[in-house]
Write a structure and sequence with these properties.
Chain A: This is Cell shape-determining protein MreC. Chain A: InterPro entries: Cell/Rod_1 (IPR042177), Cell/Rod_MreC_2 (IPR042175), MreC (IPR007221), MreC_beta-barrel_core (IPR055342). Chain A: Involved in formation and maintenance of cell shape. Chain A: Belongs to the MreC family. Chain A: Keywords: Cell shape, Coiled coil, Membrane, Transmembrane, Transmembrane helix. The complex is a heterodimer of chains A (about 300) and B (about 170). Chain A has about 300 residues and is of the alpha+beta class. Chain A is built from 3 helices and 12 strands; from the N terminus they run H-H-H-E-E-E-E-E-E-E-E-E-E-E-E. Chain A folds into 2 domains: about 50 residues; about 190 residues, Thrombin, subunit H (Beta Barrel), CATH 2.40.10.350. In chain A, the strands form 2 sheets. Chain A has a 6-stranded antiparallel β-barrel. Chain A has a 6-stranded antiparallel beta barrel with strand order 6-7-8-11-10-9. In chain A, strand 7 and strand 8 form a beta hairpin. Chain B has one domain. The longest helix of chain B is centred in the C-terminal third of the chain and has 34 residues. Chain B is globular and about 50 Å long. The two termini of chain B are about 15 Å apart. Classes of the chains: A alpha+beta (about 300), B mainly alpha (about 170). At the A-B interface, helix 1, helix 2, strand 1 and strand 2 of A face helix 1, helix 2, helix 4, helix 6 and helix 7 of B.
């Protein structure tokens, strides 16, 4: 009798306990499921909303702008020591190879002076001719706004940097952005005091395309669009080519100014190879970009004046 | 009741870590984003995981939601990714941490699982909205492996200072 007590008594307690717990768990499980679903739905709605804003609106909503501007201010404070440290390192490495560089550059400086004078005379002549033709603004005219790069998205999928100027300095959405060497990207989001720049190295499907042209050796022009980026070879892909023939490796590629966002004559890079399209109809041109997308300190935003 | 100093230190450190990620990505962009690898710096997740494991922090979910919102607003412009991932990491860490006694190896493993979850979810969201077209295999080779290696190194460097910090201020 006593042994039976010992065995069964705890067992019956246990079953009751397990039963209660099952009910409780079911309740909590349901509650948790609902929370998870609600969170997922909210998240999807937010993502859909921000993509719509990104694609269609000139500026994000005011709340978003204020948040971004506040974040920008804090970021400047955090970035300051890190940038200083980087500056110290790079000036040290600069110092190490100053002599050889100086020797090399001396040779280039003399020829540059000649080029500069020619450039100035041509520019003046150009202005006079434009005045005679009563041609005040052409596609090549643009104002530049220089900005420093605050930070880069710590993300493998957004090739995006944030620059230190915004709508207060006159930056517009979709404006072309250049480094010292060439075109690097376009402005995708404008806040009051900072803006986001999507680099050309992005693989985003909905990225806005730059209208470009190849200047061939025989003074012909081939128009096209930058349609993509090949990450493995670091080449930009130029598609929608108007004519196939005449392009050679090393031909310069510039923006054509068509399409209304970028001015004409921003340097993009050089032709690396010309290839048939997948269907053999049009050709694809691989462009070696002049700018290094991973080494950006100061950028220039080109603002069209027309 | 004595007010813990952690009340101020945790959010300040959280946002410093958040912006430090971006600054490091910018300064070392040449080595972190090459054709063969893409490293995502996630010091902010290290801060959160260490806080969950060794600190006593009030409203940690609220703070992480806020940090996730700032991440989405400021870095990507796509709201809704990290705003969910960051609290998810807190929840996951709490869930796993319950079963173990704290040690270097245990927290390391938890942190690696967290990084993997965060990276995979973030990749999946970006795949869904067409920001990338890299295949799953490509993603593992390009981003996941290098991200884990980098964050492991950061973890080894910062584990003991952060552990001491959280333990001494959470008493």
């Amino acid at each position: 009798m006593r042994g039976w007590d010992l065995v069964v008594q705890p067992f019956s307690y246990d079953t009751a306990f397990v039963f209660m717990e099952e009910i409780m768990q079911k309740f909590f499980f349901n509650k948790r499921l609902i929370i998870v679903l609600v969170v997922l739905i909210i998240s999807f709605v937010l993502i859909a909303f921000s993509i719509t804003v990104r694609n269609n609106k000139a500026t994000p909503p005011l709340v978003q702008q204020v948040g971004n501007d506040a974040a920008g201010v804090v970021d400047r404070v955090v970035a300051y020591p890190a940038k200083g440290l980087k500056g110290a390192f790079s000036s040290f490495s600069d110092l190490m190879n100053t002599y050889s560089e100086n020797q090399r550059l001396k040779g280039q400086v003399d020829s540059l002076a000649v080029q500069k004078v020619t450039n100035q005379t041509l520019e003046k002549e150009n202005q006079k001719l434009k005045q005679q033709l009563k041609l005040n603004k052409t596609l090549t005219d643009y104002e530049t706004i220089s900005a420093s790069v605050l930070t880069r998205s710590p993300s493998a999928w957004q090739n995006q940097v944030i620059i230190s100027k915004g709508s207060l300095s006159g930056i517009k959405k979709n404006a072309a952005v250049m480094s010292k060497k060439g075109l690097v990207g376009r402005v995708t989001e404008v806040n009051k005091t900072n803006s986001k720049v999507e680099l050309l190295s992005t693989t985003n499907d909905s990225a806005n395309r730059f209208a470009t042209q190849v200047m061939t050796k025989k003074n012909k022009v081939v128009n096209g669009l930058i349609t993509g980026y090949n990450g493995d070879s670091n080449y930009l892909i130029m598609g929608q080519i108007t004519v196939k023939t005449g392009m050679e490796k090393g031909d310069r590629v510039i923006t054509s100014g068509l399409g209304g966002n970028s001015p004409k004559g921003l340097y993009v890079g050089t032709v690396a190879k010309v290839e048939e399209d997948d269907y053999g109809l049009a050709s694809k041109v691989y462009v070696k970009p002049a700018a290094d997308f991973t080494d950006l300190d100061v950028v220039t935003v080109a603002k069209r004046v027309d | 009741m004595r007010i813990s100093k952690m009340r101020y230190f945790f959010p300040i450190g959280l946002f410093i870590a958040l912006f430090l990620d971006g600054v490091l990505s910018q300064v070392f962009a040449g080595t972190m984003f090459t054709p063969s690898l893409a490293i995502e710096s996630r010091i902010v997740l290290l801060w959160i995981v260490m806080a969950v494991c060794f600190g006593k922090i009030d409203h940690i979910i609220l703070w992480t939601v806020l940090a996730g919102l700032v991440f989405d607003l400021y870095y990507t412009g796509i709201i809704g990714a990290f705003v969910v991932i960051m609290p998810l990491i807190v929840y996951l860490t709490k869930l796993m941490y319950r079963f173990f006694t704290p040690s270097f190896i245990v927290v390391l493993l938890i942190y690696l699982i967290d990084i993997t979850v965060a990276t995979v979810v973030f990749y999946w969201i970006n795949l869904l909205i067409g920001f990338t077209n890299v295949s799953m295999a490509g993603f593992i080779g390009l981003s996941l492996g290098s991200t884990l290696a980098y964050n492991l190194a950061v973890f080894v460097l910062l584990y003991f200072p952060l552990q001491r910090f959280f333990e001494s201020f959470s008493r």
